[in-house]
Amino acid sequence: MAAPVLDRRARRPDRAAPGSFGTRSRTLFRPRRVAVGVVVLALLWEAVSLLVTRGVEHPEFVMPDLVHVARYGLPGLADYYTGWLGGTPPSAGGERTWPMGLAALVEHGAISVGRILVGFVLGLAAGVLLGLLMSASRAVRNAGFGIATLLRTLPVLALGPLFTLWFGATSAMSVSFVAFAVGLVMLVATMTAVANLDLDVVRYSRSLGLGAFAVQRRVVLPAILPELGGAALVAVPLAWSVLLASEIYGIQEGLGWMMGKAVQFTLVDRITVIAVVFVLLTFVMLRAVQAISARITRWAE
Amino acid sequence: MAVKSMAVKSAGAVDLAAAPRAEATGHTAAPAFRLRDLVLEYREGTQVVRPIDGVDLEVPQGEFTCILGPSGHGKSTLLRCLAGLIAPAGGTVEAAGEQVSGPGADRGMVFQQDAIPMWLRVEDNVAFGPRMRGVPPREYRERVDRLITEVGLDDRRRAWPRQLSGGMRKRVAIAAVFANDPDVLLMDEPFSALDFFTRSRLQNLLLQLWAETGKTICFVTHDIDEALVLADRIVVVKDGGIAMDVPVAFPRPRGEELRALPEAQDLRRELLDILGEG
Predict the structure, then answer these.
(1) Could you say which of B118, B128, B173 has the minimum Cβ distance to residue A299?
(2) Which of B102, B104, B115 is closest, CB to CB, to A204?
(3) 3-state SS string over chain B?
(4) What is the ipTM of this complex?
(5) For chain A, which residues make up each domain, given as ranges?
(6) Which fold has domain A74-91+98-300?
(7) A136-164 pLDDT, tens per residue?
(8) Which chain B residue has the Cα nearest residue A215?
């Protein structure tokens, strides 16, 4: 009779046992669990909606049920559509329909996605580059680490008005604010990862004849990539929060702007639809960053 | 502290006067290393610690020198100074007649822990040094291929280091250092974390590569038996100085029969006495 398998993971030779060499923690993604989570959340929403709106005259302004959200929230977004993808928006005499609402989401979603991608990439590159530069010298590292850690503890969203004042209500403001937030996370992560790097790896490379620049580029950077991948995953939700905040501060387009307009008139159904879109986009970006990170650091899995 | 070179008598029946390998191979150039009144120190809080204090030493080219000593007595620090990773607080270090001012490709190093780039496949790891130094591939490709074969990793060329055992990763490190074609190999207890059989295999592999290339090797270990198997010469570093410096002229290859040699037993006992003193 076969011996009982105590650790289920031991059945899978391709899956390392917990704590074994070369493993690293990964954000688990199980489609079935996500689907269950969505259903549970929807049920919870319905239950809470029923509870808190009992006896309320206009429940749609407090917490509308999901049927109301689907019926009025999505078509209502058509009010923010400019006709960019064709069709007649309500502002030009058209009707509030699902397709028009979807068109508004695509139009403003594309603008927001564009801003966040540019800001994210800029922030990531700047944070890592600055982190490597600051780590190259002990004096700069000690000074910079204190500043970066202090800035990291600040509520980044509170700096939004400053960016609006500096850049105006423009895409540049939104992009730079996202880049700042992401850059700060990546800067601290880079400096921490370099500080934790096994010095023998650097010494080994230097004994092979690599110069200081080659060591930074060919050894330090690849060696800290797994840690940077983890930091990038932390930066994604932060970037979306910052984007939302930046767009609410007066920019005339983007998902955050739509959200701001809906908040002005307490249109909870529309707010709910936009919030769901934000969650979906954040989730998709998280998966994309995770996939890219896993690909780049496949040697470390 | 002056070198006690030859001052400590070793096993009587062993031919300690036998010519060292460097002379046997006809090397007449400047020594691989020449240390003069070397002092190494570092700060520990407000205290200044001197792990090496006033050492004189010459290592001829082509010699296999084992630096033996108890843990914490400065042998790894000394090796790192030879690599140029630590600057002397006093005295001088010359490599092949040139003042050592930093690490260089002429002095390759193998560490106790895994230090090879984990993000490079085996063949890229072995070719890492020459490739990074801008050596044209035609000048190192054949050497890299030969070394991968010699260390027995032909079928693991495309493997990531994490997919290899500890012994295999050590073979990658050895091949990588030899592929970079340094004048000197500095090895800091490279086999100490390995099991007995793996260690024996790697010792034989190292000796084979050494015999083929005639490189100078400085090998730090705290294992007397390992030093007896490998070395042309054993330098005992203790309390910041050289407590013993003795040539080892047992015939090679040195297998299990070495343990039975009365001369080896005498030298082993003597080394044990020195290491155990104080």
Answers:
(1) B118
(2) B115
(3) CCCCECCCCCCCCCCCCCCCHHHHCCCCCCCCEEEEEEEEEEEECCEEEEEEEEEEEEECCCCEEEEECCCCCCHHHHHHHHHCCCCCCEEEEEECCEECCCCCCCEEEECCCCCCCCCCCHHHHHCHHHHHCCCCHHHHHHHHHHHHHHCCCHHHCCCCHHHCCHHHHHHHHHHHHHHCCCCEEEEECCCCCCCHHHHHHHHHHHHHHHHHHCCEEEEEECCHHHHHHHCCEEEEEECCEEEEEEECCCCCCCCCHHHHCHHHHHHHHHHHHHHHCC
(4) 0.83
(5) 74-91+98-300
(6) MetI-like fold (1.10.3720)
(7) 877 887 777 778 778 778 888 888 889 98
(8) B132
